[in-house]
Amino acid sequence: MRSRFTAPSARLALAALAAVAVTATATASATADSRSSAVRACVTKDLTYKVSSKTQAGGYFLVTAKAKSGVTCYLEGVFPSASFGSAADTEVSPAEHAVSERVTLSGSTAAYAGINPKTTNDDHGRQFDFLHLAVAGDESNAVTLTLPETATVDRPVATNWHADPADAVPFSG
So what's the pLDDT on residue 171? Predict the structure, then answer.
């Protein structure tokens, strides 16, 4: 008779121990997940931008992107969505044929893209003082950046985002 009363008590104790173990495991997993949260893709508003004029490779604009304070995100190694005006012929095309390494931005880490406003070898083109720029896929939130100098635009191209500015030179060729 005694074994009948002991068995349910033992089962109840085992069930209670199992419940505590499951709860402890779930809490540990949730804590670990919150500490190692995955880095998300950047959107245009996550970043600050600077445009500078460079003379290498016939001249181009170097766009530097940094994450705003408290933001950690990544840029895929594809070219930015950019245009100098609203006409289709002022939109940049890719200067590279492959996807580059992903660039994770946080703190002072920067990503760089080079934009060559004129890839033709003639006197044609239109003049622009501004660049409309967005992270690819977030075009509805584009920012307008003042160029350091007026650009003559004809068949513009852009490099992918890179971690090293030396990799962001848009050689035309």
Answer: 79
Asked if 139 contacts 92 with a C-beta cutoff of 8 angstroms, the reply is no
- Between the two ends of the chain, the Cα-to-Cα distance in Å is 93
What is the Cα–Cα distance from 115 to 98, expressed in whole angstroms? 16
Confidence at residue 168, expressed as pLDDT on a 0 to 100 scale: 97
> What pLDDT shows up at residue 1?
44
The whole-angstrom distance between residue 92's C-alpha and the CA centroid of its chain comes to: 18
| 85/156 Cα distance (integer angstroms) | 11
Nearest to 110 by CA among 70, 69, 52, 67: 67
Residue 172: what pLDDT? 57
Q: What is the dihedral of CA 5, 10, 16, 20, to 10 degrees?
A: 170
Distance CA 146, CA 156 (A): 17
- Bridge partners, 40 (sequence order): 73
Side-by-side strand order, sheet with 81-83: 81-83, 126-134, 143-153
Residues of the chain short of pLDDT 50, as ranges, are: 1-36
CA 16 to each of CA 24, 79, 110: distance values in angstroms, whole numbers, following the listed order: 12, 56, 52
State the Cα angle at 165 between 91 and 100, rounded to 5°. 65
